[in-house]
Amino acid sequence: MENTKVFVVTSGKGGVGKTTIVANLGATLAKKGYNICLIDGDIGLKNLDIVLGLENRVVYTIIDVVNGNKPVMDALVKHKQLKNLSLLASSQVANKDMISPEDMVEIVSQLSKHFHYIIIDSPAGIERGFKNAVVAAQHAIIVTTPDLTAISDADRVVGLLENQGYTEKNISLIVNRIKPKLVKRNEMLSAEDIKDALALNLLGIIPDSEEILISTNEGNPLSVTQGNRLNNVFNNISDRILGKEIPLEKDLSELDHAPEGFVEFIKRLFHRRG
Ligand SMILES: Nc1ncnc2c1ncn2[C@@H]1O[C@H](COP(=O)(O)OP(=O)(O)OP(=O)(O)O)[C@@H](O)[C@H]1O
Ligand SMILES: [Mg+2]
């Protein structure tokens, strides 16, 4: 397809929510009618196939494509409910050295003929496999949680991405697992502070939520389920990816049952002090 957009979702520190975000953004964009392909660029415990509930359907992986055993379109697994959401799975047994950056570029170029959006789930920046995941994309989304180690590791990843030719124009930031209670007690940085520290465009803010945790663990992204109040968060981020101007305040405005202090927290986030 013309103008296929290729995103990579990455981080400095591991376990900050990359796979969860890739699954939910993929599902949301698919629900909007776009043809979406997710590529699992990571080899880890909580792989994208599990988070999407597709682990039993994976027959071929990216390794079969690289080895020439399968054309890439035949190696994809379709989501059970969202037929326009496909996954190119990673292999648990594979060694990351089996895939080169050139292989990844070739795979993405083949997939680009068929999909509007390709989203690559990357390992954390310090791990092997990071380069494969980032070379084939045009836009990088860095995920961080609001703790100092994750933020400083995210800062290192900005440097790594710049080494791969990225600039601040095609890197953006998602702050995941914001905890309003801690922000209220001034024990957690706000998304605005983190954005300023990293000097990146803020693509979205996601609250820490048991519902997100449970949905990841159940292999059923929230975005597939109708009517969840957190859908709005992923919906807004997806709309920004589509180029719509959605104010950041909207990300958290659906949280009607937000804990006490949440409203002040939001206000603090978006209005510069002093
Ligand atoms: N906003 C959130 N609220 C609560 N739990 C979350 C949130 N985002 C992610 N999690 C949980 O954090 C854990 C790690 O998430 P995930 O596997 O998506 O991270 P990752 O960055 O892909 O990790 P890795 O670096 O190992 O690939 C999962 O159990 C997931 O359910
Ligand atoms: Mg992951």
Mean pLDDT: 87
Ligand species: adenosine-5'-triphosphate, magnesium ion
What is the CATH superfamily classification? Answer: P-loop containing nucleotide triphosphate hydrolases
Spatial sequence of strands, sheet with the most strands: 3-4-2-5-1-6-7-8
How would you describe the overall organization of this protein?
By secondary structure, the protein is an alpha/beta fold. The chain has a single domain, classed as 3-Layer(aba) Sandwich (Rossmann fold). It contains 13 helices and eight strands. The chain has an eight-stranded mixed β-sheet with strand order 3-4-2-5-1-6-7-8, sandwiched between helices. β3 and β4 form a beta hairpin. The chain is globular and about 55 Å long. It starts with a strand and ends with a helix. About 0% of the residues have low confidence. Bound molecules: adenosine-5'-triphosphate (ATP) and magnesium ion. Adenosine-5'-triphosphate (ATP) binds next to α1, β7 and α10.
